[in-house]
Design brief:
Layout lengths: L1 H22 L2 E5 L9 E8 L12 E4 L13 H4 E11 L2 E10 L3 E3 L4 E2 H8 L10 E2 L4 E3 L2 H4 L17 H24 L1 H9 L2 H26 L4 H20 L8 H12 L5 H22 L5 H4 L6 H15 L11
Antiparallel strand pairs: 1-2, 2-5, 3-4, 4-5, 6-9, 7-8
Helix pairs in contact: 7-8, 7-12, 8-10, 8-12, 9-10, 10-12
Length: 339
C-alpha cells in the first residue's frame, strides 16, 4: 500500500513540476500578424531538467512533420495548416521548439496537448516507451486579408497592365516579322537564280552586268522616243550603237566600224568557230536586225514600217534587239531579274 501511495505522490509531484514549468514557458507566434498563406513560425520556449534527447551531447534535433499525435482541435490539421518543418533545440536546461507552418484557413489553430518526448523519440527512430513530457500549445490566430481590407465584394476582372511603349514595340516587331517573311518568300522564289549567280565566276558576272546595262539603254531609248520622237534613221542608228558597244565588251574586240556582212564571221570567230544552237541563233538574229536597220538608215525616204512590210515598228525593233542581247548573254535565262 505504501508503494502505491509513494508512486501516486511521485506522479503528482511530476505533474505539478510539469505544470509549473509550463506556466513559466514562453510561446511566440511570428510575424505578429499572420495572414492565410503566410509562412509563420511558432516558438515554444521552456525549461526542464529532463534529458529529452537521451544524449546531453545533442543540442538540436529535427522532428518529423507527419507526426500523428500533433493534431488540431477540429481534427483537420492538414486542412487547417501545413507543417513545413519542426525543430527542437536546447542549451542546458532551456529547450526551444520551433514549428514552421503555412496556415490555410483564417481563425484559430489550436493544437491538442501532445507528448514532446515521444515525438522526439519517433523522430530519432528509437523505442516508443520512456519518460513523458506533455506540452499544451496555446491557440494561435490567423487573419484573413480580405477581412482586414474590408473587401465585401469581388472586383471584376481587369485587363493586364502594359508597360508604356509596349504597343509600339509590338507593332515594330510585327512589321519586322512581315518584312522578314516577305524577304524569305522572295528569296525562295528566286533561290535557283540566286544560287546560279553565286556560282558564276567574276568574269561571267561582269559580262552579265554589261548585258543588263545594254538592256537598260534600250529601254531608256524607247522611253525617250515616246516622249520626244526621233526619225527612224536616228532610232536605228542608236540601236546599232548600243549593240556594237555591248559586243565590244562581250568579245573584248572592236565592232565599232565592222560592216554588217562581216558581223556574222566576226561573232563566229569570237565564239571559237564551233557554234551551239543558241550561239547560231544569236548570230542570225543580230545579222537580220542589222540588215533591216541598215536599209532604214541608208535608203532614201525609208522607214521601219515600209522597210519591213509592216511587220516591225520601233517597239518591235527594241524587242528584237533585247532578244539578241539575251542570246549573246549565256546567263540571261537562269538569271532573269537578277541585277
Amino acid at each position: 500500500m505504501k508503494k502505491y501511495l509513494a508512486a501516486l505522490v511521485m506522479m503528482a509531484i511530476t505533474a505539478l513540476s510539469t505544470y509549473a514549468q509550463q506556466n513559466r514557458a514562453i510561446q511566440l507566434f511570428m510575424p505578429k500578424t499572420v495572414f492565410v498563406g503566410d509562412t509563420a513560425e511558432l516558438r515554444y520556449i521552456f525549461q526542464t531538467e529532463a534529458d529529452l534527447f537521451g544524449d546531453r551531447n545533442i543540442n538540436r534535433q529535427a522532428l518529423m512533420t507527419e507526426y500523428s499525435a500533433l493534431r488540431t482541435a477540429d481534427a483537420n490539421r492538414d486542412q487547417r495548416c501545413h507543417i513545413k518543418s519542426a525543430i527542437i533545440e536546447h542549451t542546458g536546461t532551456e529547450y526551444t521548439l520551433i514549428i514552421t507552418l503555412i496556415p490555410w484557413k483564417a481563425g484559430e489553430i489550436d493544437f491538442l496537448p501532445f507528448d514532446l518526448a515521444q515525438w522526439i523519440r519517433a523522430s530519432q527512430q528509437k523505442k516508443q516507451y520512456g519518460a513523458t513530457y506533455d506540452i499544451d500549445l496555446k491557440p494561435v490566430t490567423v487573419h484573413s486579408l480580405v477581412n482586414s481590407l474590408h473587401i465585401t465584394s469581388v472586383r471584376p476582372s481587369a485587363a493586364p497592365l502594359m508597360v508604356p511603349g509596349t504597343s509600339i514595340l509590338l507593332v515594330l516587331i510585327a512589321a519586322a516579322l512581315v518584312v522578314i517573311h516577305t524577304l524569305l518568300i522572295a528569296l525562295l522564289m528566286r533561290l535557283k537564280a540566286f544560287t546560279t549567280f553565286m556560282r558564276m565566276s567574276g568574269q561571267e558576272r561582269y559580262l552579265h552586268r554589261q548585258a543588263k546595262n545594254a538592256l537598260k539603254k534600250l529601254r531608256r531609248l524607247q522611253k525617250a522616243d515616246a516622249k520626244y520622237p526621233v526619225d527612224d534613221r536616228a532610232f536605228c542608228a542608236r540601236i546599232q550603237h548600243i549593240l556594237r558597244d555591248y559586243l565590244n565588251v562581250r568579245f573584248n574586240s572592236s565592232f565599232e566600224s565592222l560592216a554588217t556582212p562581216a558581223m556574222a564571221q566576226a561573232c563566229t570567230t569570237a565564239f571559237g568557230g564551233d557554234l551551239t544552237d543558241r550561239e547560231a541563233t544569236a548570230i542570225d538574229s543580230l545579222t537580220g536586225l542589222f540588215m533591216r536597220t541598215d536599209y532604214v538608215r541608208f535608203a532614201s525616204d525609208a522607214d521601219l514600217i515600209a522597210t519591213t512590210g509592216g511587220t516591225m515598228d520601233k517597239a518591235a525593233c527594241i524587242v528584237s534587239a533585247e532578244t539578241c542581247i539575251s542570246l549573246f548573254d549565256s546567263t540571261s535565262e537562269p538569271l532573269d531579274g537578277i541585277s
